[in-house]
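Render Esterase in 3D.
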Amino acid sequence: MNNLFQLKKIITFCGALACLSAFACVKAARAETATSPVTSENSPLVLAKRGSFFIGGEKAKQNFIELGSQRAADTVTINQMYVEFMQPVGKTKLPVVMVHGAGLSGNSYDTTPDGRMGWYEYFVRNAYPTYVVDQVGRARSGFNQAIFNGVGAKEADPSQQPKITRMGDLHAAWINFRIGPSQGVAYKDSQFPIEAIDELSRMGIPDLSASLTSPNPNYQTLSMLADKLDGIILMGHSQSGHFPLETALLNSEKVKAMILLEPGTCLNDQLSDAQLKKLTSIPLLVVYGDHLSSSTELPGNALGWQQRFEGCQTLIKRINTLGGHAQMLYPPSLGILGNSHMLMLDKNNLQIADLIMDWINKNTNQ
């Protein structure tokens, strides 16, 4: 009865303030009624199971040079994806699959740079079986070394060797990730744990996305994962922000919800109405943080953050017009200021996670 009375007070209070979004009221109610074992990392994390596996990939024949000039020609597997997971005890909800962005790995969703609980653990503590991947060609998924060995042995033209990119500390991270407008200067309301900025640099890894074939093998591999888990909530971030859309087009039956975290693109200019019609049965949430006028620090006429945001707003309208259910979560509209591009690492990362989980609970059959 006490919780019910408190909830009624909250609803009345939210109404009086004319909440900007349903997210605000739901968040307040959740905070008031949440139990400490769900939100506290000080309590033991009890799991039904944890582990890892690889999924996807194909066999490839490689010669002596391509294999590194140590052993005779042989076959190897390329384009596989590494997946790690934790399954909570008791009644669980739909599995959540988390995909990282450019120049990073699945570590993005684990412990934050300043040592706080990340989304990987937090979603598990809230009854979601959680699967964190390393994109094909990245980190523990490995990469295809053949062309690099071929160029090194002068058996392949250097022009065939894909670029290996790396996210620098100032232009790619500090400014592009919207921690601050210039080196060493953070936004006054910045939610990023600035004291741990060196840890963010350590998280960066060489990015071999340019080496992947077309269509991107990540889409098919994520579709296979959706089949293996018999239905998933698929979350992409930044460079992989549009992966849920691409995967759902391949497997609309097993992708149960799509969450796009600060996507580099929402594919609004690329997807036809016929393609979007296939996605209308799948709830879509797009999430963007603050300070969208900041530069992406990309050369040429690359879209800025505000333009990307507006493109996603247009896609949301198109999907809803076709009968779907798409929504934008923009924390500044709720009075939540200062979130960076790395929402899952920010000091209020669990607050943002709560808003996302509230949306999941309202829009999927749990």
